[in-house]
Amino acid sequence: MIYYYFYFMIQIQKIFLITLMLCVSGMAAAQSRQVPNKPDYDLAPYHFGFLLGVNEMFFTINTFPGYQKKMYYNNDIKQSLPDQNVDSAYLFNMEATPTFGFVIGIVSNLRLGEYFDLRFTPSLTFGERNLDYTIQSYYDTPEPKMLYVTKNIQSTFVEFPLWVRFKGKRIHNVRPYVLAGGKYAIDLASNAKKKADNTAAYVFINRKDVYALGGVGFDFYTAYFKFGAEITMSYGLFDVLKRDNTIYTDAVDRMSSKMFQISLTFE
After folding, report:
1. Model pTM?
2. 96: which of 59, 176, 227, 267 fits an S-S bond (Cβ 3.0–4.6 Å)?
3. Domains of the chain as residue ranges with CATH
């Protein structure tokens, strides 16, 4: 199921890129004999704007070898599954499911030269991720029972991305660019410090993370403003899982965050 989901998302990304390239080519060809919009816009030392986008958050999970062989008994499993009649259990499978969110932010751009910019885009990012568990459990019977548990992790990030942007040559009213940088993110909705009650078991993640960033995009110059369309990827550098000696975290060697984002900027 996850394979088909990611295959579907890859096809959507390919369609988006192809459509964007066709639009850029069409606009450049149609406008080649017109007067360029805002010909001196990129000569300004700095300018500001705002950003709107959609994102897809997910986790990359590395598990310990042979984690399916560890059995959880009595109090250990009751802490993990307080609402189930279970004496013992194995973790059969674990995987992460991405979901969609959105982002709003402010664009601050400093011109470093003809082809380079320094860009700071503080943003507020909303999203969530699911961790899906398949648990093989036993209760007064030699025959196992399969339990399917989903842990939803909601996030509201305050992000501070700093980018270096390399711009290609302007083609009339279109200009391509690539970005690279890093960001510091604070998850305001992190449950790392919450206390679990006796009726539920939580999966905790750390509040702070650092990401490496990369992306591509195009700027479009209109008569009144410039807007851009870009695709970026964020790769978390730290292990964000908070371990609590339950069936939900013991199998994980490392869990890092990733984010795919499509954004529109208006400057």
Report:
1. 0.80
2. 59
3. 2-266 (2.40.160.20)
